[in-house]
Amino acid sequence: MLVRLFFVLLIALNIAVGAWLWLGQDDARNRSAADSGVPQLRLLSERPVAPEPVPVTPATSGATAQASSVSGPTTAAASTVAPAAELPRPAPKPNSFTCISIGPFPTPQDMRTARAALTAQAARMRSRQEQTTQSRGWWVYLPASASREQALEQARRLSAAHIDDYFVVGSGGQPNTISLGLFKDPANARKRRDEVVAAGFSALMTERTETVPEYWLDLAVADGSRFDWRSKVRGPGVGSHSTGCF
Predict the structure, then answer these.
(1) Which of 41, 107, 199, 246 supports an S-S bond with 161, CB 3.0-4.6 Å?
(2) Residues in contact with 213: Cβ distance below 8 Å, sequence separation at least 6, in sequence order
C-alpha cells in the first residue's frame, strides 16, 4: 500500500514539474517577462546607430548668419555690462640706502661711543678694524759700519767736526749705525742731513713707519633721512667717505 502511494506521488510531482517548465518559461513561447505597455530595457550595444549629420546648405548658413547678427548686439551689451578685470597693483619699491664709513677712531672705545650715539639714526651698522701704516718721522743717520770699533771711530770724527746729538746703535735691526736724529718735519730732517754731508760724512735720510690699527664704523642710512653724524661724533682726524652697502 505504501509503495503504491509513493509511486502515485512521484508521478504527480513529475507532472507538476513538467507543467511548470512548460507554462512558466517565457522564452519557451517567445513571451516577454514584462507587462504589456512597459518599455523594455536595452543594452548600449543594442541601440540603433544615430544617422550622420546633414551638411548645412547655403540657405541654412544664411539663417545662421542672420541669427548671429541678431544676437550680436545682445552679446556686445552684455560684455559692456561685465565689470573690467582689476589690474594687479605694482609691488612696493623697497627702501634704498646710502652707506658711509666714519673714522678712523684711535681706540675701540672711541668707536663704541660713536656707535651708541648713531644707533637711532642708522638702519644697519657694523664696526671693523684695519691695519694701516703711519709715519713716525724722518730719520737722519750714518750707514752701519763693518764693526763696533769702526762705528766708534766714526763717532769720534763727528765730535771732532763739532757735530753733536748723535747715538751709536749697539743692537736691534741696524747695529753699528750712527743715528743723527728723528724729525717729524721733513724740512728739518733735510737741514740736518745737509749739515752732516757738508762736514764730510755720508749722511742719509729716510722715513720711519709703523703699522697701527684703525677702527671704522660703517652705516646704512635710508635715502631722504636727515643724517648728521658730525653733531653726534667729535674727534681729531675723524671723517667720512662713501662705501659699498652691506
Answers:
(1) 199
(2) 129, 130, 131, 132
